[in-house]
């Protein structure tokens, strides 16, 4: 199993620590989100494996909004350039909120086969109707061009909204052969996105880890919180807790 550290392009000051952990084989890659108007140069000096997480709704991206087509294309093109320069294996993309048909129309403009569509909760933090919350929607969005990044936390949240057994729901996602995973903890009585530390919520972490182990592509990024943005101590603690469930 390969574990990834989640970073943003504003986290230049901890890159040496991240690179050291990868050199020690504690983590195996960095999942990096380029923030608009930041510089790639500091990241080019580290010869480490990267995955790019395309800039999200937090900075205005929403591929399901027809009015933002030019803006969305520019954001994604910038992230593709980061991926090219950093030799990133994948680019992870949120399918946004609104209408799935509008998201699919936009995806017809993207030809990069490194793109992985990330599944979403059904309801956004501000009550948005998210796109890509079910295996059926994700399969439509993937088509024959794209892969899947299975966010296990998002899948649980969608199952809560739909009043479904989250374990059976995740097993349906596994049939789509995810190439990457995101993991965190959360509560089972709340449908909106949470990113809790492992053990702070109610998810069955042993089950989630077995799901990852059951696939050929065991790449999993920790999406757990850091109490100190200049330290990876919380990540190391969460990693130890997850490793207990690896056979």
Task: Tell me what you see in this structure.
By secondary structure, the chain is of the alpha/beta class. It has a single domain (2-243), classed as Divalent-metal-dependent TIM barrel enzymes (TIM Barrel). Helix content is 35%, strand content 15%. It is built from 9 helices and 8 strands. It has helices at 15-23, 41-44, 69-86, 100-107, 135-142, 152-162, 166-174, 205-213, 233-243; strands spanning 2-8, 29-33, 50-53, 91-93, 115-118, 147-151, 180-183, 219-222. The protein has an 8-stranded parallel beta barrel with strand order 1-2-3-4-5-6-7-8, surrounded by 4 helices. Helix 6 (152-162) crosses helix 7 (166-174). The longest helix has 18 residues, at 69-86. The radius of gyration is 17 Å and the shape is globular. The protein starts with a strand and ends with a helix. This is TIM barrel protein. It comes from Methanococcoides seepicolus. InterPro entries: Xyl_isomerase-like_sf (IPR036237), Xyl_isomerase-like_TIM-brl (IPR013022). Residues 48-239 form the Xylose isomerase-like TIM barrel domain.
């Amino acid at each position: 199993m390969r574990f990834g550290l989640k970073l943003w392009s504003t986290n230049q000051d901890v890159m040496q620590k991240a690179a050291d952990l990868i050199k020690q084989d504690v983590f195996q890659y960095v999942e990096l989100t380029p923030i608009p108007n930041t510089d790639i140069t500091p990241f080019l000096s580290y010869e480490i494996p990267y995955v790019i997480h395309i800039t999200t709704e937090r900075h205005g991206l929403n591929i399901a909004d027809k009015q933002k087509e030019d803006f969305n294309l520019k954001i994604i093109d910038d992230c593709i350039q980061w991926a090219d320069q950093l030799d990133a294996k994948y680019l992870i993309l949120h399918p946004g909120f609104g209408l799935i048909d509008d998201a699919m129309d936009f995806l017809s403009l993207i030809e990069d086969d490194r793109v992985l569509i990330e599944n979403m909760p059904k309801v956004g933090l501000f009550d948005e109707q998210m796109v890509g919350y079910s295996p059926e929607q994700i399969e439509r969005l993937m088509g024959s061009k794209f892969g899947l990044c299975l966010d296990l936390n998002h899948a649980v949240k969608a199952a809560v909204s739909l009043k479904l057994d989250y374990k059976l729901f995740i097993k349906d996602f596994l049939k789509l052969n995810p190439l990457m995973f995101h993991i965190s903890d959360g509560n089972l009585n709340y449908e909106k996105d949470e990113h809790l530390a492992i053990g702070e919520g109610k998810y069955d972490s042993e089950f989630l880890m077995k799901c990852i182990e059951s696939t050929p592509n065991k790449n999993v990024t920790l999406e757990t919180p850091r109490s100190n943005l200049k330290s990876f101590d919380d990540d190391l603690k969460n990693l130890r807790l997850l490793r207990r469930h690896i056979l």
